[in-house]
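Supplementary Methods. Inverse-folding protocol.

Structures were first reduced to a discrete structure-token string of length 326. This string, shown here, constituted the complete conditioning input.
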């Protein structure tokens, strides 16, 4: 398979949608083109006729069981055209080794593969629990929810005969929600209804289900604009130290809520040598859906992240939202 048979242009890092225009004969070009191909292909391979151009790209996440050279080669032979690096997990050393393995696999197979860096993004999680023991929540019981911010990794929730208290990492929780708002925890398996805003850092809610609560569980606030920067300090470091330096092709930006979010990501990339990196905005909450037109103006692509988005909107509306976006 050639670079063109995969739908990628030569000299553009294996990224679709970009065309490098050659200068006219005898005319010096003022534009310097720099190739960021994942592998170097000989001209005969690049120029061979396309038999069946692929219209759909296959994105594969490279994890512990699929990051070796042999596994990457197998994925490439099977049709992988974009390798996803999930920065919610793993160190720079881990991802750098995986990238080296991918490039070695590209050399071995003669395949071209783009690299997509998926940021961890802003997230809300529950805090730790006293003794590491799960808390049994009962439908109808009262729960005190405390906005503990960055201290969620040390704060310990508990359940006693007098009260049940848990912590959330979202510092502006009590300023964002209102009476009647829903707090979804652990992929929506636990649902809390806000009954009273007690203080700037504390609220009282009613549990709507019978379920055990564990530590560091993800949290969604349907219909609420979450006031958290689209890039955390970790995300910025990841983009600068890995994305820009390693010349990835795409960045999948988590929880994009506005056009300004995309412009901020673009600025971080441009200021650190990543002007060629394309931005794929992930739509994961209601705010992102509401601002989709503005987000489209500044994005190079859109990803409908149905897992988290399904926590924000009714399931029967998902297909309509997806059709509206794409």
């Amino acid at each position: 398979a050639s670079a063109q048979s995969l739908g990628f242009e030569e000299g553009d890092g294996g990224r679709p949608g970009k065309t490098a225009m050659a200068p006219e004969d005898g005319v010096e070009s003022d534009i310097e083109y720099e190739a960021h191909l994942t592998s170097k292909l000989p001209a005969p391979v690049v120029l061979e006729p396309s038999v069946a151009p692929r219209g759909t790209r296959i994105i594969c996440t490279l994890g512990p069981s699929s990051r070796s050279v042999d596994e990457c080669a197998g994925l490439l032979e099977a049709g992988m055209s974009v390798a996803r690096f999930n920065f919610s997990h793993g160190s720079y050393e881990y991802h750098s080794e995986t990238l080296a393995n991918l490039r070695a696999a590209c050399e071995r197979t003669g395949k071209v593969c783009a690299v997509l860096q998926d940021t961890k993004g802003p997230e809300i999680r529950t805090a730790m629990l006293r003794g590491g023991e799960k808390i049994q929540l009962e439908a109808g019981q009262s729960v005190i929810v405390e906005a503990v911010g960055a201290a969620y990794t040390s704060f310990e929730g508990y359940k006693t005969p007098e009260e049940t208290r848990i912590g959330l990492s979202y510092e502006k929780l009590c300023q964002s929600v209102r009476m009647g708002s829903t707090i979804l925890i652990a992929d929506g398996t636990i649902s809390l209804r806000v009954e009273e805003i007690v203080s700037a850092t504390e609220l009282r809610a009613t549990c709507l289900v019978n379920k055990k609560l564990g530590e560091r569980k993800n949290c969604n606030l349907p219909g609420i604009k979450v006031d958290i920067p689209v890039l955390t300090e970790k995300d910025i470091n990841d983009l600068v130290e890995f994305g820009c330096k390693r010349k990835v092709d795409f960045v999948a930006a988590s929880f994009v809520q506005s056009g300004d979010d995309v412009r901020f990501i673009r600025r971080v990339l441009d200021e650190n040598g990543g002007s060629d990196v394309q931005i794929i905005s992930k739509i994961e909450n209601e705010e992102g859906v509401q601002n989709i037109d503005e987000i489209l103006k500044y994005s190079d692509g859109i990803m409908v992240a149905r897992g988290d988005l399904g926590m924000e909107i009714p399931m029967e509306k998902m297909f309509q939202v997806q059709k509206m976006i794409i």
